[in-house]
Amino acid sequence: MATLVLLRHGESDWNAKGLFTGWVDVRLSPAGEAEARRGGQLLVEAGLRPDVVHTSVLSRAIQTANLALEAADLLWLPVRRSWRLNERHYGALQGKNKAQTREEFGEEQFMLWRRSYDTPPPPIADDDEYSQVNDPRYATLPPELMPRTECLKDVVHRMLPYWYDSIVPDLASGRTVLVVAHGNSLRALVKHLDDISDEAIAKLNIPTGIPLRYELDDDFKPLVKGGEYLDPEAAEVAIQAVANQGR
Ligand SMILES: O=C(O)[C@@H](CO)OP(=O)(O)O
Question: Which residues of this protein are annotated with the site description Transition state stabilizer (predicted)?
Answer without folding.
Answer: 182
